[in-house]
Amino acid sequence: CSIFIANSQELLKNSDYGSVITNYLHEQQTTYKYSIKDLEGLVISDQVYSKNTGLTHIYLQQTVNGTKIQNAISSIAIKDNKVHYYANRLITDISGKINSSGASISAETAVSKVASHFDLGPVNDLVLESEIGNTKQFSRAGISGREIPTELIYFQEGNKLILSWAVTVYTLDSKHWWKVNIDAQSGAVLNAFDYLINCSFDSDDHRHNLSTPLT
After folding, report:
1. Which residue of 14, 67, 118, 166 lies most exposed, with the fewest beta carbons within 10 A?
2. CA distance readout (Å), 63 to 89, 106, 160, 181, 209
3. pLDDT tier at 5, thresholds 50, 70, 90
């Protein structure tokens, strides 16, 4: 598994393929039911060129006022300035679904919530090591075997987009690598996903999904 937080993203409208992709998406509005406003915050999270096919694969991250929507990443393939395929994961009516534009709790508090929820022990000497945009990386703080990345991000729950802190902790016993969404208003645990269990097995018979809401 690749586990990372992307800090550098390019606005779609400023990219080399901005006009090609934007025109295509506008043509698909009736099919996918999104509005022009839903497209305003699209950024390119990754771009890969294939020499074998001549296709450029572009991944579009949907954002709201600069804040990413978790898992709202669409892929599109372009060759000779034409779209060859498109996999849509855009969320519609995003402005009507967001619950807040600002966090009431800090990233530090969110880390403490994760430690408490999973009984990881006391958080000691939590130090902010780097900060770029909505991402903050903290020291291991006695609860993680690696540095602790956090990101302010919208989490989709039903028909709502809930502002949350996504906190990633690699437990000291090396048994779990949790990505946890903490409600940025209430501090409640919204969701937990274990990278180790989801990525450790090649056989479909051994794949487990722990990305279910927790109470």
Report:
1. 14
2. 12, 20, 14, 17, 25
3. very low
Per-residue model confidence (pLDDT) at position 14: 85
Is-contact 91 38, C-beta < 8 A?
A: yes
Q: Flag whether pLDDT at 43 surpasses 50.
A: yes
How many residues comprise the chain?
215
pLDDT at residue number 197:
84
As a three-state string, the secondary structure of 69-108 is EEEEEEEEEEECCEEEEEECCCCCCHHHCECCCCCCCCHH
Q: CA 198 to CA 193: how far, in whole Å?
A: 8
Query: Which of 179, 171, 168, 164 shows the shortest CA–CA distance to 209?
Result: 179
The per-residue pLDDT for 3 is: 41
Q: Cα separation of 194 and 170, whole Å?
A: 9
Closest C-alpha among 66, 58, 109 to residue 86: 58
Residue 38's Cβ-side half-sphere holds a number of Cα atoms within 13 Å equal to: 20
CA–CA separation, 114 and 11 (whole Å): 32
Which percentage of the chain shows pLDDT scores above 90?
A: 83
